[in-house]
User: Fold Aminoglycoside phosphotransferase family protein from Candidatus Berkiella aquae.
Amino acid sequence: MQADINPTYLTNIEAFYDIRIKACINGPQQFVAKTYILTDENKSLYFCKVINNELLAPGIMATLPVVEEMYQKGIENISYPIRGGNCLYLLQDDTLIVLYDYIEVKQSFDYSPFALGKNIAKVHAISPRINAKAPIESFTFPNKALFMQRMENTLNSQSTDPVIQALKSLLQMHEAQNQRYIAELETLGEQCQKKHEALVITHGDIATNILVKTPDDIYIIDWDEMRLAPAERDLWMKEEVAGFLEGYQSVRPDFQVDKTYRRFCILQYYFERMNLYFSDILNTSASDDFRLKRIERLAQGKMAGWNLHKVEVTP
Assistant:
């Protein structure tokens, strides 16, 4: 088995899911997980995700029953979790392991924006019919205490670690900007809490999580950050791409973008991604090269593929 997975995980996966694994290879590296492609004795394929992230694991566990029910009720162009007995995930100490159906289609950007808009609108439209409970948007600063602690500790650090010094310099450069965004995010959150529009099942990061069979036949994968939230959470990344909103409104013709929700979702994503980057950068068990590359991406505004200019522009 040519993969870097812990052999104990494979043994426990076999017992939990009642399968016999004959092959295991490394899958694509994800931002929050290591992935593997498993083949069992019947030549069935599974996509395995191994997640060791204290910020995301609890939310991922909560989303799995929702994704399963979405698939059962007609949202078929998604990757759904496999059950092991009565459970959709396996816990190994602090590590979360999930098996999904394997979709033999490659990840690509060669898709129709209209098709993407239409597919995500179908998920939003079916939301009232889903009984499983997705995490609900609270319209607050995501993991604020952790973010502020990390920022303060880094800014006050006297460490000679070159990685910490590089992060400190970057945070000093943007400290005033971040404080301004924090204040704006919290004000917008208070405004959003007073709104009464229905929330929908949102993905949260559709920009890069797409498998393409044909430009019009696509699969939206990795629902790890699913949340009942304003539709704008799924729209702001692609709203400027020709055809995307037209595809969305072909399913939800009466929908209009709310600028307050939109701005909140952009800023919230910004700080959620910063916290995830902090986890990688402050992880001293990772190589200095890896940690410095994360700082470089953070400095360039490449937070999981989105453009920082969207934060700079106030609607």
Summary: The mean pLDDT is 90. The chain is about 45% helix and 15% strand.
